[in-house]
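To the wet lab folks,

You asked to see what we're planning to order before we commit. Fair enough. Below is the target structure as tokens, and below that is the sequence we designed to fit it. If anything looks off to you, flag it before the synthesis order goes out.
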């Protein structure tokens, strides 16, 4: 079966306990990995009500969406990916840092890695930390080798396990098959809105935002997460968190 038809890691792949979309746990995880305490993860209570969006400090540097992997979504994904060559980017000139997901149930971690490693958030990564070493080691590698690096980074697995087992709900088993998935949206310095998902063939350019826009601005929401809600088919299992300035 082709990677376009079924991009999920095989049953023999390494597996992580799924990460709950809990801002407090996510914040602890990215801080432990080396992100500055100047940033934290915030709940996003609505994508359409300005008074609810106002609870998130601006600019929001990244948006993580949890969504149900429905048949409608999968059809749209396969149709788009079928016409795209697998991403082969590497090196300092890459527009974004992207990792292919080869660890089962690690999509929450992948979303966080994409959130902190791209755009302005990257400058908040501390020196000589798990994140800084991961970025340095990943940059020159093609996607397959980057994915293998993630699998071999013990500090990443340990920090993820600690976070995933402290959620407010009972953690699923690492081997469980789940139909919820994380995708990350970031705005890079050139204004591009990127959709970053390790299940896809590579990073996806969703358009160019205006200078003052962030990932919660109307166009970013329209080109990004609202497209997913349109394909929801009545399934309301969506949730969002954003990476922005700390308020604690």
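Sequence we intend to order:
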């Amino acid at each position: 079966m082709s990677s376009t038809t079924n991009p999920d890691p095989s049953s023999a792949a390494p597996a992580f306990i799924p990460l709950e979309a809990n801002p407090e746990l996510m914040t602890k995880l990215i801080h432990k990995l080396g992100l500055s305490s100047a940033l934290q993860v915030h709940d996003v209570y609505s994508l359409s009500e300005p008074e609810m969006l106002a609870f998130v400090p601006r600019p929001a540097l990244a948006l993580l969406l949890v969504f149900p992997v429905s048949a409608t979504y999968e059809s749209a994904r396969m149709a788009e990916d079928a016409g795209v060559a697998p991403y082969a980017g590497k090196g300092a000139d890459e527009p974004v840092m992207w990792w292919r997901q080869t660890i089962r149930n690690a999509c929450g971690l992948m979303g966080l890695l994409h959130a902190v490693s791209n755009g302005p958030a990257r400058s908040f990564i501390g020196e000589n930390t798990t994140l800084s070493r991961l970025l340095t080691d990943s940059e020159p590698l093609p996607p397959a080798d980057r994915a293998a690096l993630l699998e071999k980074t013990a500090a990443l697995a340990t920090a993820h396990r600690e976070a995933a087992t402290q959620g407010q709900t009972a953690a699923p088993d690492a081997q469980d098959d789940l139909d919820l998935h994380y995708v990350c949206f970031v705005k890079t310095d050139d204004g591009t809105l990127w959709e970053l998902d390790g299940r896809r063939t590579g990073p996806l350019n969703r358009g160019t935002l205006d200078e003052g826009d962030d990932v919660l601005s109307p166009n970013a929401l329209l080109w990004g997460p609202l497209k997913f809600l349109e394909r929801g088919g009545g399934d309301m299992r969506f949730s969002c968190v954003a990476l922005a300035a700390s308020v604690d």
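Structural context that might help your review: The first strand starts at residue 39 and ends at 44. The chain is about 30% helix and 15% strand.

Thanks,
Computational group
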